[in-house]
Amino acid sequence: MTDATAGAAAGPEAWRVAVDRSACIGSGICAALAPESFRLEDERSRPRRDTTEPGEAVLDAADSCPAAAITVTEGTEVIGPRP
After folding, report:
1. Tens of pLDDT along 1-41?
2. I want to staple 49 with a disulfide (CB 3.0 to 4.6 A). Which of 7, 38, 63, 81 is the partner?
3. C-alpha to C-alpha distance for 37 and 63, rounded to whole angstroms
4. Are 53 and 68 spatial neighbours (Cβ–Cβ below 8 Å)?
5. CB atoms within 10 A of CB 56
6. 32, 66 in Cβ contact below 8 A?
């Protein structure tokens, strides 16, 4: 399920970001809301790094994904998309 590039925010508070590229419809909402965290590649979203510093924009992107293709985790807890 994870398609991510290497590189990372390394601290214990870093969030893991994953995009299910088979579910992604390429709307680009995530890249518009959090361009520092997502990019479109081959008409599908891809995280710029596999981990990121915590931030509201990343959660907003996960919440706004029309295909629910983005998952944000902190440790073992899924924190995005939010209910």
Report:
1. 444 444 445 556 899 999 999 999 999 999 999 999 999 99
2. 7
3. 14
4. no
5. 10
6. no
